[in-house]
Design brief:
By secondary structure, this protein is an alpha/beta fold. It has 13 helices and twelve strands. The strands form two sheets. A six-stranded parallel sheet has the order 3-2-1-4-5-6, with helices on both faces. The protein has a six-stranded mixed sheet with strand order 8-9-10-7-11-12. α4 packs parallel to α5, α5 packs antiparallel against α13 and α9 crosses α13. The chain is globular and about 55 Å long. It starts with a strand and ends with a helix. The model has no long low-confidence stretch (mean pLDDT 93).
Length: 325
């Protein structure tokens, strides 16, 4: 069985999905939709997609489309997904699942007693090192008091926030946009927090949403998690994730090892300096998400990250973001 996808939205991340679907056995991208006919046509021509349209209803009524991959502005995710569910389409939603929990809750109710598969893009769940850390925390020596720390820092300039329709200026707090995968990771590791102590603020005057947030999360198993996120720090900063427990420490960067060298010169320089030349290979999480979702539809099972997971991450992100000081 080939799962026939429709791409809904031609946002900046859309080309990455096109490339991954092209390499995925058992999946086919058959049509792309954008509210702009010109953008839909240009995108289809540039990426070799056989059909394009500005009419979402035509896709919903097309029996040749099995699943919607929804990449529009987040505030439209829930509304489009509700229409897709009513049309009997499987659904894969980019992060965040929406900017408002209400349509997500309505979607949950709409698909609860159906055979539809609804997934949320959560690539960190497919990282082998993250999976090793999660499994290690189940060991007897890792039980008891635990302290986790997750830092997600990046740089986003004014042009990023004003791009397109400018929705990011007011609808893209750092916890909802950049940190949503990290909050999903904590949910996957520890479940729902029983206590949330947070503060968020706007560090730059042109913004209408918080770009600096920190929270202390309390979990039922005794774990405390410190979470910080921001988009104001220039330079490159990878996510940093560490868990201390009674038996020791699990640190993502240490387990991952050095980043793969960019070429032979860097490998030679590491060798001369006596440094490790190779780290663990970086896994393409987005490709794994598509593989898992496609298999879930075929097998009639839930995907690795479902709609309830996406809703939990969104609700926590909003709760932290709204604790503005």
């Amino acid at each position: 069985m080939t799962l026939r996808y429709a791409l809904i939205g031609v946002s900046g991340i859309a080309p990455y999905y096109v490339k991954r679907l092209a390499r995925l056995p058992g999946a086919e991208l058959v049509v792309v939709q954008s509210r702009s006919p010109e953008r839909a046509r240009t995108f289809a021509e540039n990426h070799g997609i056989p059909a394009h349209t500005a009419d979402l209803e035509s896709i919903l009524n097309d029996p040749g489309v099995d699943a919607l991959l929804i990449l529009t502005e987040p505030a439209r995710h829930g509304e489009i997904a509700l229409r897709g569910a009513a049309a009997g389409k499987h659904l894969l939603l980019e992060k965040p699942v929406d900017l408002d929990p209400a349509p997500v809750e309505a979607l949950l109710a709409a698909v609860r007693n159906t055979s539809l598969v609804v997934g949320v893009v959560s690539p960190w769940r497919f990282d082998p090192v993250m999976r090793e850390m999660r499994e290690a925390l189940r060991a007897p020596e890792a039980q008891g008091a635990r302290l986790a720390q997750l830092m997600i820092m990046s740089w986003r300039d004014r042009s990023y926030y004003e791009r397109g329709s400018g929705w990011r200026l007011t609808g893209s707090p750092v916890m909802v946009n950049q940190a949503i995968h990290g909050l999903d990771l904590l949910h996957w590791f520890f479940g729902a927090p029983v206590g949330v102590h947070a503060a968020s603020r706007i560090s730059r005057p042109f913004l209408g949403c918080s770009d600096q947030s920190a929270a202390l999360l309390e979990y039922a198993d005794g774990t405390l998690a410190l979470v910080g996120a921001g988009t104001f720090s220039r330079g490159r900063h990878g996510p940093r994730f560490t868990v201390w427990h009674p038996g020791g420490v699990l640190d993502y960067d240490a387990l991952m090892g050095p980043s793969p060298p960019s070429g032979w010169r860097e490998r030679l320089g590491r060798w001369v300096a006596g440094q490790p030349r190779w780290g663990r290979p970086v896994v393409d999480g987005m490709a794994r998400v598509l593989e898992d979702f496609t298999a879930a539809v075929r097998e009639g099972r839930p995907p690795a990250a479902g709609l309830e997971d996406g809703l939990a991450a969104l609700q926590l992100a909003l709760r932290i973001s709204e604790a503005r000081k």
